Amino acid sequence: MEVTFLGTGTSQGIPIIGCDCKICQSDDNKDIRLRSSVYIKYNNSNIIIDTGPDFRQQALKEKIKNLDFILYTHAHKDHTGGIDDIRSFNFFLKKTIPIYGNKKTIDQIIRDYSYIFKKNNYKALPKITINYINDKFEKNGIIINPIKVKHHKLDVLGYRIKNFTYITDANFISNKEKEKIIGSDVLVINCLQKENHISHFNLDEALSIIKELKVKKAYLTHISHNLGLHKETSKKLPKNVKLAYDSLKISI
Ligand SMILES: [Zn+2]
Ligand SMILES: [Zn+2]
Ligand SMILES: [Zn+2]
Question: Which of 7, 21, 82, 88 is the most exposed place for a label (fewest CB within 10 A)?
């Protein structure tokens, strides 16, 4: 399996419009963070988790030419805002793209982007088939295990595919759901900043989950400018934990 981080930033991305802080002004490429998303190549399938507002730019940057299906974690705009650009894939791959999410996410996507799902034959609309998921399912011979996490009061899905687990936008994981993560070789988990936050894990919380679940390797994502410079923050992390950065590729 090969995973490419398409984006590792929080909802506003880094740099934030109008911000003069040293992180937003850094000239280290690793401090430039588009909205969070990953591209997974596995078992002859090409999977994207979330299509945020930077989806077009990310697909161009990584020269993505294949896409089989999309998994959505939740319907916040930093995770769905690029959905209209699925049509580029419809055009050149000549196929409809299936999307997956829990009921709340899919229903919210249908409300927010209602023009896509209206019954008409306007050719320029994205062609998407919707799939409601709740529990483990199989697609193209790949077992996908949704992990139910809480993002303040919102139900969000993380995903485990083989030994790779991706969790973004969470600040609570129940013991039952933690069981599903155990045994992963790689865990990607959201870490917004050092200070507490109402709907995201902070650094201490993310590190304590990584330790508790004994994952071999972990990457932090959905990072805000409050977490500090990539270079400086990286030095303070345990050996098996890294800050993810845009365009990072890992093999599992
Ligand atoms: Zn988010
Ligand atoms: Zn800033
Ligand atoms: Zn969110």
Answer: 21
Angstrom distance (rounded) from CA 83 to CA 196: 31
pTM flag (> 0.90)? yes
How far away, in angstroms, is 152 Cα from ligand 3 center?
Answer: 9
What percent of the chain has a predicted confidence (pLDDT) above 90?
97
HSE-CB at 41 with a 13 A cutoff on CA atoms is 11
CATH number of 2-251: 3.60.15.10
Phi, psi for residue 159 in degrees, rounded to 5: -135, 135
pLDDT, average across residues 186-204? 97
Burial 38-74 (b: 16+ CB within 10 A, else e): bbbbbeebbbbbbbbbbbebbbeeeebeebbbbbbbb
Measure 10 CA to ligand 3 centroid, in angstroms. Answer: 9
Residue 154 CB neighbours (<10 A): 16
Distance 78 CA to ligand 3 centre (A): 7
